[in-house]
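Notebook, student rotation project (T.W.).
Task set for the rotation: take a protein with a known small-molecule partner, predict the structure of the complex, and write up what can be learned from the model alone. Partner molecule chosen: calcium ion. Sequence and SMILES entered below by T.W., checked by me.
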Amino acid sequence: MGVRMKRFVFFCSALLMMVGIGIMGSVSEAQAVVLDLTTAASSGFVNGAFFLQTDLNRHATGTGIIDSFVRIQHNGTEEGYNTDGRPLPLWPDVNTSPVFTHSITLGSVPVVTINGVDYREFLLDINQTAPDAFLSLDELQIFIKNSGSITSNLASLGVPIYDLDAAGDSYVKLNYILNPGSGKGDMFAYIPESLFTTAADSDFVYLYSQLGTNFASNDGFEEWAICPQLGGCLHVIPEPSSFGLLGVGLLGLLKRKKKTLFKKEEIE
Ligand SMILES: [Ca+2]
Ligand SMILES: [Ca+2]
Ligand SMILES: [Ca+2]
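Predicted structure of the complex:
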């Protein structure tokens, strides 16, 4: 092969490689989702889970209605999961008070129906400063296990149920300023009930979240909660009109499951 031919072959190979990398890049970008929940009542799906911005005022719901089960706090990035186990040397961002961080059973997590689909409902309450109100939920993973006191790494948390990043590096962009003040919820995560079909009500649910990679955490803690006593947090919102037009529409589509899921002894 002559020098000119070798140069031509090299040029073609390089071109093919660049095209290939470009295709691979666009495919992975297509799989990753950036869900923007920075406007009131905005919503969307990531890997089949439904995320909804909310202005739920936890103080207006009364003590004991909302059960907080994992609280994490660290400027920059932060991560952790709920458990009864202590100490938590691998998870320094997690608040170790049993009031704020403890196990939950699947039976205590309310099931709500949206557009004919059953979901398990989780509430996220964030706290940020007003000038830097954006915060990213960069990872959310849910597991099921027959023990509620694990303290080790994520691989020890049992059966994987849901992963925000399963189809690419996705994140949900949140805006604290939509509902400022302490103790006000910011987002619902609705995980399809169909993913939990092999689990029993007595199994423990681990919720791992990591925040602050794309939009850094600051100021106060972030906290996940459920509303077991009334079969879901949306049912305790006093004024549906404050939910915005989309919220009102969703409320019309949302029904509380008939069966009683709450067992008092399972909560705290
Ligand atoms: Ca909040
Ligand atoms: Ca991610
Ligand atoms: Ca924060």
